[in-house]
């Protein structure tokens, strides 16, 4: 069974969310609205990652032979960890 997450909103945020649910007619509950927001954010992040990968692959494919640098698996893993830390900030 999946674990749930409880989030509380108050004041203007709560009013805003309630109005979005009521006015749009697209959502039957605030939970459905929040799930949709998170899903869209997740999809946007995935698109950003794929765009980055495509850009890197394109640059590699277009690079002159002299621009290539020999790397081993440890170098690649270290670079991935470095980028992950940088993106987490």
TrEMBL record:
NCBIfam families: antidote_CC2985 (TIGR02606). Keywords: Toxin-antitoxin system. InterPro entries: ParD (IPR022789), ParD_sf (IPR038296), Ribbon_hlx_hlx (IPR010985). This is Antitoxin ParD1/3/4. SUPFAM superfamilies: Ribbon-helix-helix. Belongs to the ParD antitoxin family. One of its GO terms (biological process) is regulation of DNA-templated transcription. Pfam families: ParD_antitoxin (PF03693). It comes from the Bacteria. It comes from Prosthecobacter vanneervenii.
């Amino acid at each position: 069974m999946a674990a749930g997450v409880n989030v509380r909103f108050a004041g203007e945020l709560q009013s805003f969310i309630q109005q979005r649910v009521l006015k749009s007619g697209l959502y039957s509950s605030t939970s459905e609205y929040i799930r949709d927001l998170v899903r869209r954010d997740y999809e946007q992040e995935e698109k950003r990652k794929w765009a980055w990968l495509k850009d890197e692959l394109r640059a590699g494919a277009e690079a002159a032979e002299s621009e290539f640098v020999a790397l081993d698996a440890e170098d690649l893993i270290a670079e991935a960890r470095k980028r992950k830390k940088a993106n987490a900030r």
